[in-house]
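User: I've been going back and forth on whether these two constructs are worth ordering. Before I decide, could you fold them both?

Assistant: Sure. I'll take them in the order you sent them. The first construct and its structure tokens:
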Amino acid sequence: MRSISAIFVKQARDALKNATIFIQFILFPIMAFVMTEMMAKPDPEIPNSMFAVTFGAMFAGMTPLTLIAMAIAEDKENKSLRFLSMAGVKPHHYLTGITGFVLIACAVVSVLFALIAEFSGMLMIRFVGVLLLGATASAALGATVGIFAKNQQSATALATPLAVMLALVPMMSQFNESVRRIAGVVFTVQMNVIFTNEPTASMAEPLLMICANIVVFVGLFVLAYKKKRLNS
């Protein structure tokens, strides 16, 4: 637990000192709020929740991925990862510590999206829970990208197009049957399935698919951590 706490505190301090990270956390909620107030509320044809749901899913798929990838790549570049591994820090301890602060921040932002969408009660809990689960998958994927990247620059080069693809694939799958079949395993597509279904519809299959994404990404991270840590 000490190693997790130390890594968590380090990541929190680094994040709080970085204005770029703060901007990434507030950009999507601001866009959702502005478009809801200026476009959704004046038009009875547009649901008040539409932009909050859309930008919330984009946030969950993109922001944790890029931030975690860059944070781990920075640790590799500074040789911190090698030091931690030689000190006996297990991969799951490192992953928990490095993603902890980002996921807590994601939970807060998810509540903001729910308030913008005017969700309440079980609908809010459902929405926030799905966003946080998607953010967890995104963070796990970002950790895998970060552990393979040589430095922060290469991590950004890998994570950015991947994050954009994750944001666009759900929209593309709505208009193209072939994309829907191929990309159905992607966690952002399954998040979109939940959000576009009726609240009373079963969420079991999409949730299982998102959890499967998390398991695969964490497994890849653990394997890469054990293989690359001494070369970090």
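The second construct, handled the same way:
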Amino acid sequence: MNAMIQTVDAGRPVQQEIRINSGEYVLSARLFRPLGKPRAVVIINGATGVRQRYYAAFATWLAVERGLACVTYDYRDFGASQAGPLRLSRATMADWCVHDPAAVRDHVWSLLPGVPIWHLGHSVGGMGLAFQDGASRLDRVITVASGPVHLRDHPWPYRALAAAFWYGPAPLATRVMGYLPGHALRVGPDLPKGVYWQWRKWCTTRGFFMGDVGETLPYPDWNAVTCPVRVVAVADDDLVPPRAVWRSMGFFRNAVVTQKVLKPARYGLGEIGHVGMFAQSARACWEDVLGE
């Protein structure tokens, strides 16, 4: 189901709002097209709690400067994809990590037949490929600040903040409200309770998501991805430090994997952190994110 809303402007991509079915949910997405035929389409699978609109500047750059189409989207019951009261949501992190990315990819294959597909996963958006149907058909994978992180991986003093998020007021508020009231707690956007609880479980358990395999997660195929994989870490990322990012390389056992560390000073930046690399102000590092 597509809602066609297009804008054309000199020096800017054609933008098209689309709706994508993911099970019983409908995801809100946006396609950025270059003015000519795209040489590939990049699907941006965002970080937890980061709305698709944040990636618009990067998506525009891909289309205008690199001749790449780009699709951004919000996971089920989040951002523009939220369809009702969060307290009624049954969305989980497994849905965001596995089912929604696969649904978007299937839709893009039908929307742009014959165009190579690249998977760009930011944080959790880069960790579910081994669980997804169709991952073997990808032409390129880029993961950014993405890896199975544990509470003890965080440096101090950030580790204290993370511990408070998992064991302080947030779980109590989630039980009372029926969703994570992130805005009220000043810890980020509101999230479905199923997303918060599973996220909490993964980040406070050794083995990360492996405890859910065979239950909410299917059995993984670590050999599914055969295309080139670029794994990008950020030197000043306290949320998913480089040592946690490098663990994700084990998810791609049948691929040629390259590594890159983004260091803020190299790009004239004071900091990048876990999400800053996609901000317009960090444009200087986009070439190294893309790796071309």
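Notes on the second construct follow. Residues 93-111 form the longest helix (19 residues). The CA atoms of residues 268 and 282 lie 9 Å apart.
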